MiAMP1 protein (Microbispora bryophytorum), 102 residues
Amino acid sequence: MKRFVLVPALTAATIAISAGAAYASQYVAYEGPGFSGRSVVIDRCGMSNIPFHGSYRWYGDGQSGRMYNQPDAQGVAHFTLAADRNAEQRTPVGWKSIFIVC
């Protein structure tokens, strides 16, 4: 009888873990204004330096992004991108690093 109870519990846990891992917020940094030139996607938890500052797109899908005007998330966060809303800016951005809160 324990075997029948354990299988559904393991299945539910696997589905929950897979669903949680499927989505993550993303910051897409573009080299040029208007989302032009090379781009990089930043979606890992914690601190990341931003290599391009021409424009950006933010896809908020569960984690917020703290934006810093200094590399390595030094100093005070200048702005926080929402965990549940998308955002974008077509003109150059001064942010040098991001801390994605997971």
The two ends are 38 Å apart (CA to CA). Residues 39 and 81 are 19 Å apart (CA to CA).
